[in-house]
Design goal:
4-stranded mixed β-sheet, globular, alpha+beta, binds flavin-adenine dinucleotide, Uridine Diphospho-n-acetylenolpyruvylglucosamine Reductase, domain 1, 5-stranded antiparallel β-sheet, 278 residues
Length: 278
């Protein structure tokens, strides 16, 4: 267990920017998490790998729960059970090793299971909730619930719970494809060819609008390479913002607003961020 005060969230978010978390708690297991939540009175957020999250420069005056030690994965009766902090890469490898097909796309997404469930993460035509059998959640009072996909409204990169203030602690998946979709190695090669992998980013900043691509709209506005402060639009992929030179969260947010205004003026399309900003 780790328990820190005023922890810089730039250390935990892949954009490498952002303010301090007032309280930062890394439980060793779900029992520790539950006891801590029972005592807690602050606003809570959970963080996995921080690959889709930006905390504003003035920080978060609440409790951040980091799930990185909740990472067990097991296989039982054709269902894979995994804790929320397990990485998607590990889940994908584990499924493959147990001859369960369909999880290959997850190897290309640098997140945790909990973060992917919260975002309905997806790639190459698949989305994580397609394979969910059930999830376990924990509420603000530390109580565990079992939920099914019917308890959520699940759409493209959006998951709305029909109940409030619960966080994912584990999930059961049935990867039931008859054959592999594609080799994980090929997916990573495709990614490396089109995205600025290895530089601090949050992946795609905006959701793709209906029947269109955010990257195409941004590129058509000649915005590739455009910077505000240390935050720049990638030369390689127009829907990626890179922290090129010690960007603040404010630089990144202003660049997001600039892109939205420019694309709305030029194409009449309102781009909606995929990135979660707190
Ligand atoms: C290079 C790169 C490529 C990417 N490519 C893709 C892609 O192809 N497809 C895609 O969908 N995404 C992509 N992403 C975005 C990101 O990886 C995914 O959204 C991922 O699922 C986020 O997981 P995380 O653990 O990092 O979540 P975090 O960034 O830690 O959190 C994201 C959100 O989930 C919430 N959350 C985290 N854990 C929990 C939990 N246990 N319970 C409840 N809420 C929780 C957080 O509070 C926050 O609101 C990419 C990002 C990068 C940097």
């Amino acid at each position: 267990m780790t328990h820190l005060i005023n922890e810089p969230m730039s250390k935990h978010c892949s954009l490498r920017a952002g303010g301090l978390a007032n309280e930062f708690f890394v439980p060793a297991d779900i029992d520790q998490l539950s006891s801590h939540l029972k005592k807690n009175k602050k606003t809570v957020i959970f963080i996995g790998l921080g690959s889709n999250l930006l905390i504003r420069d003035n920080g978060f005056d609440g409790l951040v729960v980091h799930t990185k030690h909740l990472k067990n994965i097991s296989f039982d009766n054709s269902v894979i059970k995994t804790d929320a902090g397990a990485t998607l890469a590990k889940l994908s490898r584990f499924a493959g090793a147990n001859n369960k097909h369909g999880a290959e796309f997850l190897s290309a997404i640098p997140g945790s299971v909990g973060g992917a469930l919260a975002m309905n993460a997806g790639a190459f035509g698949s989305e994580i909730w397609q394979y969910v059998v059930s999830v376990k959640t924990i509420d603000m009072n530390g109580n565990i619930q079992q939920r099914s996909p019917d308890d959520y409204v699940i759409t493209y990169r959006s998951v709305k719970a029909k109940h409030n203030d619960e966080f994912f602690v584990s999930a059961e998946f049935n990867f039931n494809q008859v054959e592999k979709n594609i080799e994980a190695r090929d997916l990573l090669d495709k990614r490396n060819a089109s995205q600025p992998i290895g530089l601090p980013s949050c992946g795609s900043v905006f959701k793709n609008p209906n029947n269109n691509f955010a990257a195409k709209l941004i590129e058509a506005c000649n915005l590739k390479g455009f910077c505000i402060g240390g935050a720049c639009i990638s030369d390689k992929h127009a829907n990626f913002i890179i922290n090129q030179n010690s960007a603040t969260a404010k630089d990144i947010e202003e660049l997001i607003k600039h892109i939205q205004t420019t694309v709305a003026d030029a194409h009449g399309v309102a781009l909606e961020p995929e990135l979660v900003i707190i």
